[in-house]
Amino acid sequence: MSDCEYGICPYDKSHRILLFRMPKHIIKCEKNYRGPPLQTCKYNATHRVLNMEKHLKECDYYLRSIENHAVQIALSSRIPPKLEDGHDVDTSL
Predict the structure, then answer these.
(1) Where in the numbering of this chain does the CHHC U11-48K-type domain appear (predicted)?
(2) What residues does 49 pair with on adjacent strands?
(3) What is residue 87's DSSP assignment?
(4) What is the 8-class DSSP label of residue 51?
(5) What tens digit of pLDDT does each residue of 60-75 get?
(6) Would you call 38 exposed, middle or buried from its count of C-beta atoms within 10 A (0-12, 13-18, 19+)?
């Protein structure tokens, strides 16, 4: 069990939870929370934060999403190379 990753509960920093159990824990812990309202990250629902703008600068899930989106845009706007006779090069291998 030492190879499992742990996370810190956003509602109680003294709670150290196995990441695969975090979604269920957050639901229970949120009911007893009495602090300022936390926003839910739309890229990972277990991320609950006070300042979403600051969080998105550090959120791996958001950064991966942006990177994947940029790659998709680049691939969709790519113009296939042409042969000297004007036909497209067959890039399927």
Answers:
(1) 6-33
(2) 39
(3) P
(4) -
(5) 999 898 888 777 777 7
(6) middle
